[in-house]
Amino acid sequence: MRAFFFAGVLLLLTLSSCVTTLQSLLTQDNIVTDDRVAGQWVSNDSKSFLVQKIMDSKFKPTIEELDRHDYTKADSLFFTKLYAISFRENNLDYVWLCGLVRIKDQYYLNFEPRECLNDLKKESYTLEGQKFFTTFTIAKLEWKVNNGLSLHFLNGDRIKKIILNGNARISHEYDPLFDTFVITASSKELEQFLEKYGNNESLYDGGLTLNFVRKK
Amino acid sequence: MINKPLLRAAQHILFWIVSFYIFLYIFKIGNKPGKIDYVYTILFHFFILPPVYINLVWLLPRLRRTNFWLGYFLINISLICLFSWLNLKFFSDWSNTVLPGYFFISYFNFFQVTLFFVVYLAISSLLKLSKSWFVVNSLQKELLVVEKEKAAREKELLELEAKALRAQMNPHFIFNCLNSIKSLMQEREMDKGVTYLTMFSKLIRTLFNNADKKEISLYDEIETCKLYLQLESMRFDSKFSYAVNVDEKIDLKSVQVPALIIQPFIENAIWHGIIPKANGGHIDFLVNQKNGSVEVIIDDDGVGQEASLQNKAGLAHQSKGLHLTQSRLELNNLLQKKNAQLEIIDKKNDNQKATGTKVILTFNQGE
């Protein structure tokens, strides 16, 4: 609990009120890629985000690493479909990994924090060593005209309220002491949930929405 | 006494309550069941109830009547597939419309849902069959009791019948004897009449002694027959002769026979065999041992059964005593679980002319 609590806090530092899941939405079966995702993006508050295919980023694994982890071909293929997002906030350099999922003609992005470095390029918070459980958050991707896109994050507070009120049957953990909440549903269940309720606006209302424009 | 439909309804309610709580604890997602778990368990049961009751109310009784197992399984498989699909469809799609305030997904795949249905149909069928088994068992026990009571009543009835037949024998015999005495008196043979009366009183005393007995010893029966032969031979004077030959090796007192079972055959031999014959006749009364049984033979050289029946103008005049005796013998075999046998042989010469009747009564020794 403490482990994903910390990871959750890390996410909440940057994406307050987003839903936190213990399991990734991504699976080898549902992960997809879209060339439109990669590139330099500027948010509506003028912050810059660099989105790279993982194989073009510094996280590209070496052959030795792949051998060391004994990845299967499917694992490798899955890994290559990920994106790395780099951005700076509060004098810290963040790197997130994200994957694209298409459910019923709707794209969703699954985010996981990967790195947080201070100006000395020292790891301020790292999850590389798997000291903590990584948690994930999910956003609906909406393509806009004129090279724009919006990310609508599921409203974590709203979902938490629905679940704790006994109106949604989704596996979760709740710690009333620290008021921490994480969804523990499986990847398949998350996918099913989005398939059915992905377009339910009430799950996004009041949540974080980020608008981006591709940097020319 | 509890109303049966009410008891049945209570059993069903209890079953579903137990089922609900088992499922609730299987389906709960937290440490203890929450509101959503109750709702989900109720909804899940909505899809289990129809196939279970279609099976219980329609399919199983139909199977019991037709024994068409293939059809039964095919319909059940179709039911399972249909309601599993409905279950999946409801939780993955329709619940959004039916219960907009609730968020459900289908937590099980098709195979897992069908397993739930298979288990439920199997359990409910087994419960129904085991219940039916208990009902059938109980009915069989009740039936057995009823059959025992019926058998006891039938036995009682047969005994009453046998008693009635015994009661009929004595007046019949007395009637015949009194007729004989009347004949002697009409012929003015007073000495013979007195002797006859003395023997008759002796015979009556014997009959009285045996009146209430279902069975008497073969010894007593033979003594009665001897007295009767004496009486009848006196009455008809030289009309017939008789010889009694009893194997001395036989322990006559150990063989139990129905009272007055032999006498009617002697009476029949005299009245319907010898008397119609113009030049008189002879009766051999033999008691032998044969193959561990005692054989009582009444062998006359009278006119034979056919001629006797013609003389009497048909069955209406057949000796009533003989008919009663045959019935009594059969009843006694049934009631006392004995195997006494009666054989009546029409004796004929080489020209196929009747030469008399031979009656063989066989009693097992020690019976």
Report a brief summary of the structure.
With 216 residues, chain A is an alpha+beta fold.
Name the CATH superfamily classification of the largest domain in chain B.
Histidine kinase-like ATPase, C-terminal domain
Structural class of chain A: alpha+beta
Number of domains of chain A: 1
Largest sheet of chain B: 5 strands, mixed
Name the average pLDDT of chain A.
Answer: 84
CATH architecture of the largest domain in chain B: 2-Layer Sandwich
In terms of per-residue confidence, which ranges of chain B show pLDDT below 50 for 5 or more consecutive residues? none
Order of helices and strands of chain B: HHHHHEHEEHEEHHEE
What is the gyration radius of chain A calculated from CA atoms? 17 Å
Instruction: Please write the CATH class name of the largest domain in chain B.
Output: Alpha Beta
- Measured by DSSP, the beta-strand proportion of chain A falls in 35-45%
Please give a structural write-up.
The complex is a heterodimer of chains A (216) and B (367). With 216 residues, chain A is an alpha+beta fold. Chain A contains five helices and twelve strands. In chain A, the strands form two sheets. An eight-stranded antiparallel β-barrel of chain A has the order 2-3-4-5-6-8-9-12. A two-stranded antiparallel sheet of chain A has the order 10-11. With 367 residues, chain B is an alpha+beta fold. In chain B, 65% of the residues lie in helices and 14% in strands. Chain B has helices at 4-27, 35-66, 69-98, 110-186, 190-210, 218-235, 263-274, 304-311, 320-336; strands spanning 215-217, 240-246, 256-258, 281-290, 293-300, 341-348, 354-364. In chain B, the strands form two sheets. Chain B has a five-stranded mixed beta sheet, covered by helices on one side. A two-stranded antiparallel sheet of chain B has the order 1-3. Chain B is rod-shaped, with a radius of gyration of 41 Å. The interface between A and B is medium-sized, with 15 and 17 residues.
